[in-house]
Amino acid sequence: MLARGLFTKTSLRSKPFGILKSRLSFTAPVSGRAIYGKMQDIEYGNSLEKHKDLNLPRPPPRVIREGDYVLLEGDDHFSKFIQVTTKGHFDFRKKKVKIDALIGQPWGCVFQVDANRKLVRTTESVLRGVKIEASAAEVDRELDDGSVPKDVALDNVAETTKPSVQKLDQDVLRDMKQKGDGGQQIIQALMDNSSTFGEKTEYSKEKYIAKKKKKYQPFVRVLQPEAHSIARSWYRNKPEKICYMREDALAFIMTMSNVQYGSNVGIIETCNGLMLSAVAEKMNGSGNIVDMHPNNSPIVTGLSYLNLSPEELKNIKHISLDYIPEILKRLEGRAPHQPEYNDRVTIKPEEYTTEKAAARAQSIEDVSQLLMDGLDSLIIATRHDPASLLFPVFPLLQLSSPFVVFSPYLQPLAECADRLRSECMAIQVDVVELWTREYQVLPDRTHPEMKMTAQSGYILTGIKVMQDKERRPAKKPRGGRSEEKK
Questions:
Q1: I want to staple 273 with a disulfide (CB 3.0 to 4.6 A). Which of 136, 214, 303, 380 is the partner?
Q2: Does 10 map to a domain?
Q3: Is the Cβ–Cβ distance between 363 and 348 less than 8 Å?
Q4: Looking at the record, which segments are called Disordered (predicted)?
């Protein structure tokens, strides 16, 4: 078992809670989108039975199709995103494995890699087929007979006193692989031909079998990519790609930003599209998502992994931060003129010579109007200075709307929080650090994981309010009475 305790450290409170999950569990996570899809299938199937005369088309099965992105997960925290094609392959255990066998298979199934470097579908019972109960009973009988000393059975001295304890050589193992014997048969043969396996402790036997399974019985589980699985995979392999944002930090950001169905959300991120994918997955094509990217073009790597339909992507708009100064000037009611920021101006579509450029200009104009109407939530996740991004776009956020800023560094967020409080720009301003520790929970072997990192960045949260200079003067009470009693 693996226990993960998460503690939210704030200036006022601390909320501990724990999540337990099995290290050897093969249960695939089910997302809200998947459950909603299954409910749609059930409702749609019932409507087909009621209206057979309409000849309604059957919904497509929820299987892996060519062109879909999949997440492959195995032991030792192996995870990899690949796009399924008929001629594609991926690197696994120093081998190039073909992936065409995934087409048409359901999500969440388990595959083994055979001797021909092909994926063969298997079941969880096969993966857990190697047992040690028989060997343990044999050791008990030997202990009762006195043939094996108890002190030898309880330690592993016999392993170091015998130079060769395995009767099978590499030639025999190679012949077994060529004959098509699976990993379960090979592991069982190694156990039967090991002269010291019966003398091992129960803990050593479990480690021995687990080690042989990794070598002779490798497996991968095919999962449908989701925002939390993208964060988990990238954090394990390349955390710098997502600014060291853990999956629990992603969940906290989504909670504090109050992203909900039909809202207008503004996003500024340099996390390879992780925040964009999380918001798009939750909104499911409703409302509007404005991606204000600091680069010349948006980075949507994480968004492409979700396999979203065009209907679910239609609410996502992209605009460069270069246009924000002009939008703010228009918002203040002043006549637009040439901005100082990169010398960009809004050009009317009819002034362009090509249809593509005209469509791009019209899109920028539509996004500008959307930003002028106001955002319901603002999310910033970047390794850059958060103050240079938060305060320029802060006027675009509506009053009483939440904002969340994520940064891998504490000091810039502390400076932003101090300015927000001193200028009375927001309430409930707080800087949060999330802390996670993973535990191995096994009989007599419970301890924290040896390889883990406590770095997951810091999060600034708050709610925008009207500043004193923006407040209207209070109306005089009726009857000519003065507000203050003299």
A1: 303
A2: no
A3: no
A4: 467-486
Q: What is the CATH number of the domain that holds 165?
A: 3.10.330.20
Q: Do 358 and 396 share a structural domain?
A: yes
The residue from 171, 205, 224 where one domain ends is 224
* Domain match, 272 and 204 both: no
Element (H, E) at 110: strand 110-113
Structural domains in the chain (count):
2
Question: What's 370-438 look like in SS3?
Answer: HHHHCECEEEEECCCCCHHHHHHHHHHECCCCEEEEEECCCHHHHHHHHHHHHCCCEEEEEEEEEEEEE
Residue 362 φ then ψ, to 5°: -65, -35
198: in domain: yes
Asked if residue 274 and residue 195 are part of one domain, the reply reads no
The boundaries of the domain holding residue 160 are: 64-224
Cβ atoms of 67 and 84 closer than 8 Å: yes
Instruction: For residues 135 and 269, state if they share a domain.
Output: no
Tens of pLDDT, residue by residue, the chain (486 residues): 444 444 333 333 333 333 333 333 333 333 444 433 433 443 444 444 554 555 545 545 588 999 999 999 887 778 889 999 988 888 887 778 888 889 989 998 888 877 777 888 887 766 665 554 444 444 444 444 444 444 444 555 545 445 566 777 777 777 777 776 667 778 788 888 777 777 788 878 888 888 887 777 778 889 999 999 999 999 988 899 999 999 999 999 999 999 999 899 999 999 999 999 999 999 988 899 999 998 778 888 999 999 998 888 999 999 989 888 888 888 776 444 444 434 344 444 445 556 666 666 767 777 888 888 889 999 999 999 999 999 999 999 999 999 999 999 999 999 999 999 999 999 999 999 998 888 888 777 788 888 777 778 999 999 999 876 655 555 555 555 544 444
One domain for residues 302 and 252:
yes
